[in-house]
């Protein structure tokens, strides 16, 4: 049997955490032959709820689950962690300034970065889910300099999956036959869901999404805003933000990163920009990536039209502003 992999979930008493931990314990993140040890972190006010999550994990008798540590101690939580899913954060409350929310999250991620830096496995892979996801990831990277920068990523896979879902619904095809959409940029309403390279497998071979949809007006307006605003639409209907779809896409993100993307398929991940596609280096920006042997690489050479360029630049601008705001909170 394989050695267990230790997975940290922060914010584990929250609603995404509650959906995510059983998925990991069932093997949906690392495969059904991979035993796992779960480290669950939350803060003191949530300690009892966190312990209930641990009780339910024990009660589920998951065959792959080799241990559970539920703690409010950051060092204990980060010790020997191979994969860290950072879901805990400070939510924006009514009437709060953006700067105040940023400041809270900067101090959380600065502290958690330091704990991972000192106590996690040296090759620990990190996925930032908590918002502002891209900028929190950047702060974590800054304060965990010994973790390779390629190991620090943020979640835009939910947006990617939402884009696949919208195309599948529009064309009445199975979502599994749609591939290679792209989410560029920030996990925020400035993200750019791009279908210019997306395809659908049909009985008659592979067809382009643009050709099949045959309605550029819809693809350039309503489709884009639907994906950008999907999180808000869920909150409006559910009175609470998306949870199991976020958890499921976090599993997709890690699974594809660790086990590889299928041949001919790419996914979207927020990763440290190397300047590809003219995106300023030093931002955590969502790109199309393929993964092999635990490493991602940005898909190169895609043709970018003027419409896409403007949208890719606008979301980069927002990330540059967020980065400046985050740095202004450091002192
Ligand atoms: P919840 O408020 O239900 O859960 C958050 C949990 O984090 C709480 O249990 C809280 O006590 C805990 N927490 C707060 N500070 C902490 C700290 N310093 N250390 C450890 N735990 C801490 O929120 P939930 O709906 O689960 O969402 C979690 C985060 O995911 C939010 O920031 C949310 O904005 C973000 N999202 C990101 C998505 C993405 O695609 N990147 C999509 C879904 C989601 O909106």
Automatic annotation (TrEMBL):
Active-site residues (renumbered): 187 (proton acceptor)
GO biological process: malate metabolic process; tricarboxylic acid cycle
Swiss-Prot/TrEMBL keywords: NAD, Oxidoreductase, Tricarboxylic acid cycle
EC number(s) from the headed UniProt entry: 1.1.1.37
Keyword set includes Repressor: no
Family matches, as SUPFAM superfamilies: LDH C-terminal domain-like, NAD(P)-binding Rossmann-fold domains
Domain Lactate/malate dehydrogenase N-terminal stretches: 6-152
Catalytic activity line of the entry: (S)-malate + NAD(+) = oxaloacetate + NADH + H(+)
Presence of keyword Lipid biosynthesis: no
Binding residues annotated for substrate, in chain numbering: 92, 98, 131, 162
Chain ranges of the Lactate/malate dehydrogenase C-terminal domain: 156-324
GO molecular function, one term: L-malate dehydrogenase (NAD+) activity
PROSITE patterns: MDH
Annotated NAD(+) binding sites: 11-17, 42, 105, 129-131
Family note: Belongs to the LDH/MDH superfamily. MDH type 2 family.
PANTHER family noted in UniProt: MALATE DEHYDROGENASE
Name under which the protein is recorded: Malate dehydrogenase
